[in-house]
Design brief:
Radius of gyration: 29 Å
Largest sheet: 2 strands, antiparallel
Helix content: 55-70%
Number of strands: 2
Order of helices and strands: EEHHHHH
Number of helices: 5
Strand content: under 5%
Strand order of the largest sheet: 1-2
Structural class: mainly alpha
Distance between the termini: 53 Å
Length: 142
């Protein structure tokens, strides 16, 4: 690791750059007329494509839905017993209720285990007091 030259952006703060890296790759917003999208595309080029959580859920639902439709419509040529077909027809409703229960349970658990941030609360209260004092000095009354 070496310190960037004084002519590079961020050098006044002693920006540490990995060996062989230019400051433009680390601070593209500091360079006038920089194409930030090009820098991001260059950085993401070697990583491959990542799916968002929404895309993962949609692919999973599409896979489950197409499997369910193929089984219920007889597209695979399977002769399922009537008891299996009855369960299969109501399966989406069961899955929807199960997903709702899971969502409620997850929200309940997260609310129950939510941590109090006492240090952040004290810091915020002191900032509020500073802002009020500043506004009072400028003539605002509360």
């Amino acid at each position: 690791v070496k310190t960037a030259a004084t002519s590079l952006p961020g050098a006044s703060r002693g920006l540490q750059l990995p060996e062989g890296r230019a400051a433009a790759e680390h601070e593209p917003w500091r360079i006038p007329n920089a194409d930030v999208g090009a820098v991001r595309r260059r950085e993401d080029a070697g990583r491959g494509v990542t799916m968002t959580k929404l895309a993962q859920w949609l692919w999973g639902l599409a896979l489950l839905g197409s499997t369910w439709a193929a089984l219920t419509m007889g597209a695979l040529g399977l002769e399922l017993p009537s008891s299996c077909r009855e369960v299969l027809w109501s399966l989406p409703a069961y899955l929807l209720v199960s997903a709702g229960c899971y969502a409620l349970g997850t929200v309940g658990y997260r609310v129950a285990t939510f941590h109090d941030c006492e240090d952040a609360a004290r810091e915020l209260q002191s900032q509020i007091q500073e802002a009020r004092a500043d506004l009072a000095r400028r003539g605002m009354r509360f």
